[in-house]
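> @MW can you paste both from yesterday?
MW: sure, first one:
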Amino acid sequence: MQNNDIFRRIRYALDLRDSKVVGIFGNVNKKVTEGQVRYWLLRDDNTSFVKLSDLELSAFLNGLIVSRRGLKGDSPPEAEELLTNNIIFKKLRIALELHADGILEMLILAGFTFSRHELSSLFRRPDHKNYRECSDQLLKKFLKGMQLKYRPAVEEEVVTGE
């Protein structure tokens, strides 16, 4: 999954305006402008499209954690230079203060069944024998479930055409 698509889906699901996104980046001392945010939100076939790097998406997710849960320690967390779906999923779980039941509920909302044991394997260290990689499909379903949970009225309007 492309970083821009993940960023777009999170921003939409949590109903974050460009100015709020700039503030989220500011939580981890990363300076971005509303113009940069708009370029990241464009579709990749647009000539003004700017690709969001792993470092930038990681900074956004860290900023989201700080904005929703507060700063842990004296300084904001360092952004990872290389992101995986597992890291993205884990950061969203932390930011949204989700436990297994909440995550499984969101997956069910998106029409995806997953067991508690499978879920725990996603959050293990990569060198653990029961570690499992998070697929693009699973991350998409989680983001869809997140949207259905946090913006249900908007989804109903789109479906019913009201």
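MW: second:
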Amino acid sequence: MKETDQIETLTALADAKRDRKSHSLASVRVSPGPYLAVASVLTFLGAMLVRSNREGWALLLICIAWLIVPALAFTDRIVFDGGSIRRQGPISALMGLIYGYRKHLNISDFELLETHAVRTLRRGGSVRYRYRTQIIGRGKEFVIASGGHGYRKLIRELLPLIHEDKLDNRTRDLRDYLNDPAAVSNKAKLSMLASEDVLDLTSADRKPHRKQQLQPAVVEAHDLERAHLLRRLGNELRVTGRLKEAAEAFRRALNVTPQASWLLYDLARLLRSQASAQGDARLLSRARAALRLARTRANGDVVLLPLIGESFLECGDTRQARRVLQETVDLDYGNYKARLGLADLSLREGKLAHVIHHYHEAARVTSETALARYARREADYYTLLNDDEDYLVTELRRISWLQNVTRVRRMSGRVTSVAIVTAIIGGFLDPLAGSIGWSLASSALILWLLSVVVTRLLFSRSKPESVA
């Protein structure tokens, strides 16, 4: 009887594990950029075949480019099942059949998450951000691009499960403040914030009166709660791209709690976003001033101080960043994020010995296996650079080639676009101009394809030669 119960228990556990693997909490489509590039190349080849009077092959390529490739892009997804993320789709399945390799990474193996924001549209005081979150671990990389409800759901399900030290500032903002734009608009209306059109009529640079900068003698509990809600609303508006309304929310919150260090830190990040969107150096200077004020009022908060140091780095103030990060290490010797920040600063200054020291200390103080593995790998890499002169020369040569090839890729891409337009327009005016345009486009496209391949080869670090 006991053996029967044990078999049934094991069977139930196996079924539960299979159900968990097959269950998807959230998924998002892979960025369509590579698929668009493939479709464009195939379309170009189809146009060249039409010029060579091979309409049948040209039609086949165009059908593949605009029927099969979009279908593959639509079904290629990154799926999160609660414990891991994986690549799912026809291409992934084909790679698994051919090479026995499936792209899969457990949450516990995440080593680093970085988010980059790209402005795609600007209108008045608002911008439209497109976020690109990069997940790295065990030599694998997943890139998740924003674009609708699926991305927001994946972020809400995935990021709260990840250790704080694995997130950079932007990823942390997405975890805490990414929300549906309609919900953010409703919150702004309920908070009675002025609309963007009204805020455009007011001066963005107005200075608050001296009385508004003073801490009230007594702050009621409901005022503190409102300030907290306004701070959260300001961050949600900032992440959404509604920067002027976010500034108004922060202004109202500061009227209640002008000494709040976290609020000042959030205001500094808003000012930096505005400076970047408007190209205003004065706003960037104000962002640095707000960060200095937040540091002064942090009162030794070892959670906030590394974030301030990272923001100083984003603002280009390496001197203040080092001071803040060193202060954090003095207060909390085992602060992982501060150690990584100091290693980054030392690398910018070319102090490899300091870089190695900080990575070794980061690996020693953290209790997370993935973080320790990442720090040790970086420490070993820079130790090899420091000890092996030949390997250092090889890596410097690789990086130089990578920079040159990247420039060639960008230039050839622009030349291809201009040459195609010239060939199409010139073909109606003069057949010779059209032929020259198509020839130039073909050469530039071949150069672009070669540069893409070479970039992939040069992107990985070189392997050291084994000592005989």
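> thanks! The chain has four domains: 2-29+77-175, 31-75, 183-206+221-369, 390-459.
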